[in-house]
Design goal:
Chain lengths: ~600, ~325, ~500
């Protein structure tokens, strides 16, 4: 959950507060008529003029805000609440619930809004109390549909299935998993509904189906101003203006809310390359390595200042070599991988350092050059192959796209090559499979397809971000085998991002252990595993289930978030060996033995 | 095949439920068609004349009998006659419906042409100048009631510049050019609000989709931004956009009253409102029934579109 | 996307006005008249609204009609006279129906009998029950025998509610009439077209070859159509647009005081059973504010029964019987035992601006003397139903007398008639009923005047309705439209009679 931006909240709050505090302003009685001065222009006593009955427009506008906002917000919230519940229930429980929820909405939609309003209002009598349920019913189908569609699209996704198989209660799945995923569209719908509620209120008030005159409401004011709109256009302007400002504030709030609940976590922050970094490029690399990171630091700007989820990461990967980047979630290993590709999410930016791929500093390339590099020289595969594949494109099309993006071959040639690649990654019957959509394949098959896509242009470097985490053990082994084979055959370098030490042991030549945004230890896999030189590595190793059936020892506590790093050694709060001096000063990554680096003051006690 | 049959069955059920609700509701609402017809202009008719008219119109029969009669008539596709002047309701709807459909269609095309690209650009340049201006405009467009937009258009283009007549309708067959001139302003008026809604939805959907993992994958492949936009973002964003568009088109079917009034466009919504005001039961029932059938058809089209847009729907 | 050059744009823009012209061109001898609503039905004898009345004045003629001076004049009858104590006889002129048949006494007899029939839905059905028999002694003579002497029969027959149609020609679409125009085309809800009836009885009439009547239900659309030249003439000019039309040098506004606004009361239950409280209400309203707020100053304060100033029965003595006098109102309330006011509900409708505005002003003014008024504002159809059933304590009325004779007010002030929406509910007025009956049977003008003086005196006391104001009823037309007469008072909605005189000049 991101933090909510304060601007829109303040704007909506101010409008609501204004409406609440109206009685304290000592305004004219909004009902008091002064027909001698009907349609009078603005004066000092009546800053916005007087309406067709000589009533003070400012006073009516502000008093009207209470009625209009109350009607709009309660009706749209009511619709949102019931609509979301119905949509969730219908989409998730299916069966008769689905039928009743959807068809019931169809019945509502079959009634033109006006007729519906007329029927209800004539039966219940006009007034705000009737208006709220009427409008709520009118907006209900919108919410039900949006939520239902959202539920449909996530209903069959792996993680929902997984939760279901884990025995999570339906309610918990609905609230915890699906709701955040449909949050965005629902919020947009909410802002649209609230806005159109006020406009519709004016239409209904105009037809005598809304707020009962002479009580003020924006809708009534708009309706009343219609008769005189050519004589006194200002009367129309004020409520419309009030309404559009309110809509804008609501829209902004919805945007902000959506950002805040969005699981993908984007904010409006835009990427800015620091000027200094442009002027002082990193050191020239030594020739040879497929990837060299020098002091890579990533920043995320927050209202409270920048935070640094990745700090001073340096490493080098040679051709033919596999480097594993290991750490718990939140350690910054995935961000490091994304930064190397130039694919950081818009919130994050590179704050320092350099990343050399094949002799070029990718952090200083423009987007076009970077694009030529991506998918050709360097490729990446991701953790969740289902969400990482476009659901509406055929597999071979998606693979072919990678080929076409870097060569002039036509679509048919690309397709043929895609089929070949599918065969190469061990997909049986590739000619037929090429036509499949991602949802028609198994998880392992999808990951093979992702790999085929990544190796399509024989990259020099392949970054694999938890490529086997979502797969079961047998498939996992097959995919690892495949990656190892491919690397052997092509001589590409492989950066393997994972949290699983057994996987590291199986595939990597060297390992870099990350903790809280920093590399804490680096070295050859066999050496590091046999003799860790950092307490964290040791703890990680101890937490892995072992063959000798001795109990694994979990590491107490969690990784500190980047905005709450402890001083000194970041691992100190969880470290068995920590001493008072660990919690102060800076700790460099030091090469304490040949090709063995560690960031611990007391490494020697482990050795 | 079974699926199709089931769908048709559900649709028939839906239409029947709507017909029944309308039948009951319109008669539950106070107001007597005979009294209204004979007391136009504030004068009052002889109560005996009203009673005589009620007998003529069959309004004195028990409700149950009227319902059975109505349903039997509907079964053979007869929508009945207007209580006001005995015009066959079906014929009147057939005359009015194409005009409303044309109006909505033209408005939808205009709104898509404006709202979709604007939403796309605003999402791509989120927080930028265009996004801000367009968001302001959309908020204003949503805040300004449709009759204001319409009246302004008439004031400017008809009364001020004399570019077009203030309103009215001529059939395309009779006078194609004139027909289009008369269509332009009301369609544009409806399109203003619709475009604002589409803009909001497009912007939101594109932002949503561009955050998906598969967009990152496409970028990781080095696919050009233009192609990412067209093949990945837009294609996947279309689903919610189509949903919202369809919902709004559906509600426009009976909801273009004010525009029809302002531009004197004799469409279905105006007919419905007049019929409700006159408590012309068969006409109200006929119009709502036709609207619900159209709505069901619209749903079917949307479902087909879904299947076209999203293979997961096609197979699941 | 086609890219237009700037030049092409300019050409396009220049072509637009021409385009608009092609969109509205009409032949020079056709009057384009913007109606305010489409006639819901063209049944010849039923009242189906003012638009229908206008159309019926084109299609039909009865025995008599109203001339431009507001006097009864012969239509299909060339002359008429009292015939015996209870009878009237009418001499028919040589007139033809639209199908070419001669208008005969038989057709007249048949038509009038349809109005009287037990299953009739005619507007004059009730009043025609006073007819004993109708005779057609020869093809050119019609005798109507009343049950009592009736001086007002010609007034009834002159309204467009009693047209003569060819015997047996009644059908769902109307009937075959003998009016100045024939219906050539109609598109339901959109427009009606008429062509001059070449064999109309009055030579040289109608003056225009054709009339086209498009319907503009929205008042602003109607005005816009006139101002942008889509039509030559409109009815029911909205009050807020009148000033603008007067300022426009190409247009003429023609207004007279026609219909009036009033309050009707429920005499069966609630506070207004007490006539003192009805009087209090009548004295508590500053009527000029209703004229200002509801009619933009286009109307006249009305403090007595709605009898026009031009009427011979107008009496200044009673014309201000309900003058604004809040002190008197308070006294009346004190006398009725509610010195500090009371709560009550005012029925009106939000569907029509003038009803809504009137209700709001009345609410405000009654609040000033302590009467707390709650507004009940359903849609018009519900309002009519509630009016008919007496579901109100008092209500806003907007109506027109049937004609400018005090007898034309019968339906609105005679509480002894069966209850309906037009008048106060369950408010028996035996004195008024008796006086109206006497006036109807009295042929001597001086004696009639005395009767109606007494009627006005009684009405001021009983308050069968509390009149509020006359409202100006406006027609607007382009400068070159001549010959139209906007008739005052109760005749206002019959102004369509003068369309046969209209010509372009
Ligand atoms: S520096 Fe101190 S706290 Fe940090 S890992 Fe080494 S021993 Fe533990």
């Amino acid at each position: 959950m991101q933090r909510l931006r304060p601007g829109p909240v303040a704007a909506v709050g101010a409008i609501a507060l204004l409406a609440l505090l109206v009685p304290l302003f000592g305004l004219d009685n909004p009902l008091h008529m002064d027909i001698a001065h009907r349609l009078a222009r603005p004066t000092l006593a009546h800053p916005l003029g007087q309406d067709a009955y000589g009533r003070d427009v400012l006073s009516r506008l502000l008093w009207g805000a209470r009625v209009s906002l109350a009607v709009a917000s309660s009706s749209s919230l009511l619709a949102c609440l019931f609509g979301t519940a119905l949509g969730l229930a219908g989409g998730f429980l299916r069966g008769p619930v689905e039928f009743v929820a959807l068809r019931g909405m169809d019945v509502v939609l079959c009634f033109p809004p006006l007729l519906l309003a007329l029927l209800v209002v004539t039966l219940l009598g006009p007034g705000a109390a009737t208006l709220i349920p009427v409008l709520a019913v009118l907006y209900l189908p919108g919410f039900v549909r949006v939520v239902y569609a959202g539920v449909l699209s996530v209903r069959n996704q792996d993680y929902v299935e997984a939760m279901r198989s884990l025995g999570a209660g339906r309610l918990r799945i609905m609230l915890g998993t699906i709701l955040p995923n449909v949050g965005g569209p629902v919020l947009v719908q909410l802002s649209l509904a609230a806005a159109s509620a006020v406009v519709l209120e004016s239409g209904l008030s105009f037809l005598g189906l809304g707020v009962v005159p002479p009580a003020p409401s924006w809708g009534l004011m708009i309706g009343e101003a219609r008769a005189t709109m050519l004589q006194a256009p200002l009367l129309l302007l004020w409520p419309c203006l009030a309404l559009s400002v309110t809509i804008l504030a609501l829209n902004a709030l919805c945007d902000a809310l959506r950002d805040a609940v969005d699981p993908h976590g984007i904010t409006r922050g835009r990427r800015r390359a620091a000027l200094l970094e442009r002027l002082a490029p990193g050191l020239l690399p030594q020739p040879g390595p497929a990837l060299e990171l020098v002091g890579l630091t990533i920043a995320i700007d927050t209202p409270a200042g920048p935070i640094h989820p990745v700090r001073d990461v340096s490493l080098r990967v040679m051709p033919h070599e596999t480097l594993a980047l290991v750490g718990e979630s939140g350690s910054g290993k995935s961000l490091t991988g994304l930064a190397t590709m130039g694919l950081l999410p818009p919130v994050a930016r590179v704050a320092g350092g350099a990343a050399w791929i094949d002799g070029r500093d990718v952090l200083r390339l423009d987007e076009a050059a970077l694009r030529r590099l991506r998918g050709a020289t360097v490729a990446m595969i991701f953790q969740d192959p289902l969400s990482s594949l476009n659901p509406v494109q055929r597999i071979a099309t998606q693979i072919g796209e990678a080929i076409e993006a870097h060569g002039a071959s036509g679509a048919r040639a690309a397709w043929r090559r895609a089929v070949e690649l599918l065969r190469h990654v061990g997909i049986p019957d590739p000619e037929r499979r090429a036509h499949n959509f991602p949802h028609e394949m198994s998880g392992g098959m999808r990951q093979r397809a992702m790999i085929a896509m990544a190796i399509a242009n024989q990259p020099r470097l392949l970054i694999a971000d938890e490529p086997t985490t979502a797969l079961d053990v047998t498939i996992q082994a097959q995919v690892l085998d495949l990656l190892a084979t491919l690397r052997r055959e092509s001589g590409m370098a492989l950066v393997f991002i994972t949290h699983s030490l057994p996987v590291v042991a199986e595939i990597a030549d060297r390992v870099a252990v990350m903790y809280a945004g920093e590399i804490v230890e680096q070295g050859r896999v066999a050496e590091v595993f046999a003799r860790p030189l950092h307490p964290y590595t040791a703890a990680l190793l101890a937490s892995v289930p072992r063959e000798d059936a001795s109990l694994p020892e979990p590491i107490p506590g969690t990784v500190p978030p980047p905005y709450a790093l402890p001083p000194g050694c970041a691992f100190a709060p969880r470290c068995r060996l920590a001493r008072a001096d660990c919690a102060s000063g800076t700790l460099p990554l030091t090469e304490v033995m040949a090709e063995r680096l560690t960031r611990c003051r007391r490494w020697s006690e482990l050795a | 095949m079974l699926f199709v049959l089931k769908r048709i069955g559900v649709s028939v059920l839906l239409v029947w439920v709507v017909a029944t609700i309308v039948f009951l509701a319109i008669r539950m609402v106070p107001g007597d068609p005979a009294a209204i017809l004979l007391s136009q202009g504030g004068v009052a008719p002889d109560p005996a004349a009203v009673a005589a008219l009620r007998v003529q119109l069959g309004l004195n029969q028990p409700l149950g009998l009227q319902y059975v009669e109505d349903m039997r008539r509907l079964l053979v596709g007869n929508l009945g006659q207007s209580l006001q002047d005995q015009t066959p309701v079906a014929g009147e709807i057939l005359r009015r419906l194409p005009r409303t459909l044309e109006l909505i269609g033209a408005a939808a095309v205009l709104a898509v042409l404006v709202g979709l690209p604007a939403g796309l650009v605003a999402a791509m340049r989120r927080g930028g100048t265009f996004d801000r201006i367009a968001s302001w405009l959309a908020a204003a467009a949503l805040a300004v009631p449709v009759f204001v937009v319409g009246t302004l258009m008439v004031a400017i283009f008809a009364q001020g510049l004399h570019w077009a007549p203030a309103g009215g309708y001529v059939s395309f067959a009779r006078h194609p050019l004139r027909h289009l001139v008369l269509l332009a302003m009301p369609a544009a008026t409806i399109a203003v609000g619709l475009a604002a809604i589409l803009f909001r939805m497009t912007r939101a959907a594109v932002l949503d989709v561009s955050m998906r993992d598969y967009i990152r994958t496409a970028r990781a492949k080095g696919v050009a931004p233009r192609r990412i936009l067209a093949r990945h973002v837009l294609r996947n964003a279309l689903m919610p956009i189509v949903t919202v568009l369809a919902l709004n088109l559906g509600s426009l079917l009976g909801g273009t009253v004010l525009v029809e009034y302002v531009f004197n466009w004799p469409g279905l919504s105006g007919l419905l409102v007049d019929a409700v005001n006159a408590r012309d039961y068969p006409e109200v029932q006929g119009v709502v029934l036709v609207i619900s059938v159209l709505f069901v058809a619209l749903n079917l089209v949307v479902d087909l579109l879904y299947a076209l847009l999203d293979p997961r729907v096609r197979h699941g | 996307m086609v890219a237009l050059s700037r030049r092409e744009w300019l050409i396009g823009a220049a072509a637009l006005p021409a385009l608009a012209e092609t969109a509205r061109a009409a032949p020079a001898d056709t009057l384009r008249f913007g109606l305010s609503s489409y006639p819901p039905s063209l049944q010849p004898w039923a009242n189906t609204g003012t638009a229908a009345l206008t159309v019926k004045t084109l299609l039909h003629r009865g025995l008599l009609m109203f001339g431009t001076d507001g006097k009864v004049k012969g239509a299909l009858a060339s002359s008429w006279a009292r015939d015996g104590k209870n009878g009237w006889s009418f001499k028919l002129r040589d007139a033809l129906f639209h199908n070419g048949q001669k208008v005969t006494a038989e057709d007249v007899k048949w038509s009038l009998e349809q109005i009287m029939a037990p299953t009739s839905t005619a507007y004059l059905r009730g009043q025609f029950q006073a007819i004993a028999s109708i005779e057609a002694p020869d093809a050119k003579t019609v005798r109507i025998l009343m049950k009592q002497p009736t001086v007002t029969l010609p007034l009834m027959l002159a309204t467009p509610f009693a047209p003569v149609i060819a015997k047996g020609s009644l059908n769902a679409a109307g009937g075959i009439g003998a009016g100045p125009y024939t219906l050539t085309a109609q598109e339901r809800g959109v427009s009606l077209s008429f062509a001059a009836f070449a064999k109309f009885y009055e030579p040289g009439h109608p003056k225009l070859r054709a009339i086209h009547m498009p319907v503009y239900a929205d008042e602003n659309a109607r005005v816009a159509a006139l101002q942008s030249g889509d039509v030559d003439m409109i009815e029911y000019v909205p009050w807020q647009a009148m000033a603008g039309i007067q300022k426009n040098p190409k247009l003429v506004l023609n207004t007279v005081d026609g219909p009036y606004m009033a309050l009707a009361f429920n005499g069966g239950t609630g506070p207004f059973k007490d006539e003192r409280l009805r009087q209090a209400v009548a004295h508590a309203i500053r009527r000029e504010e209703i004229v200002a707020a509801a009619f933009f100053g286009r109307g006249t304060v009305l403090e007595g029964l709605p009898i026009t100033k031009s009427s011979e029965f107008y009496d200044p003595k009673y014309a201000h019987g309900w003058n604004y006098d809040p002190k008197l109102a308070k006294q009346l309330m004190a006398a009725a035992g509610v010195p500090n006011g009371f709560d009550c509900t005012l029925l009106s409708t939000a569907q029509y601006g003038m009803h809504l505005a009137t209700a709001q002003v009345v609410q405000q003014h009654l609040a000033a003397i302590g009467i707390k008024v709650k507004l009940d504002l359903p849609d018009w159809a519900t309002r009519v139903a509630m009016g008919n059933r007496g579901q109100y304590e008092f209500c806003v009325q907007g109506q027109t007398a049937d004609n400018n004779d005090p007898d034309g007010l019968s339906a609105y002030i005679d509480g002894t008639l069966p209850p309906d929406n037009a008048r106060s509910y369950h408010l028996p007025t035996p004195e008024i009923h008796k006086l109206l009956a006497e006036g109807r049977a009295e042929f001597d003008p001086a004696k009639r005047r005395a009767i109606y003086d007494e009627l006005q005196r009684v009405a001021i006391k009983v308050v069968p309705l509390a009149a509020l104001c006359w409202r100006a009823q406006g027609y607007a037309m382009t400068k070159n439209v001549h010959g139209f007469t906007n008739m005052p008072g109760g005749l206002n909605f019959y102004s369509g009679y003068s369309l046969e005189n209209v010509y372009f000049g």
